[in-house]
Amino acid sequence: MLIRAATSQDHAAILALNAESVQFLSPMDAPRLLHLDQQAAYHRVVQIDDEVAAFLLVLREGADYDSPNYRWFAATYARFLYIDRVVVSTAHQGRRLGAVLYDDLFAFARADGIDKLTCEFDIDPPNEGSRIFHARHGFREVGQQRLGGGKLVSLQLADVTPLSS
Fold it and tell me: Would you say the pTM of this structure is higher than 0.90?
């Protein structure tokens, strides 16, 4: 298993993974992925053998992103990292790949002096797996937002604890 920066050669695999889990995410086509990749502060994949098994795409404050959830965080916090999407291939679920990526992201945030990680997950319709996963990583609800189409999301924040000196 290798965690590495996503490259343009990974985009087809990333789009396929996104499509596999689109019921929990927003759809994404190639131009949208290219735009998000260019805006990303952190975009990494987990590679197993020659396969992209998972990815995590994260933006900072100040990104050019039209997501209403990202914009809520941008209006609320001056400095943060926003987890736009984390996806693990159904073939590799249960292997803690999401947790490995989150551990890496927390280390990235600490190294960059960022003390807030933000994200959202669906609560109507519910995404119980995401709720449990994020609670394990110290996320807590800081708001809710109803989106077009009637979906209700829980806006989440995790404090990044600095390394003790």
Answer: yes
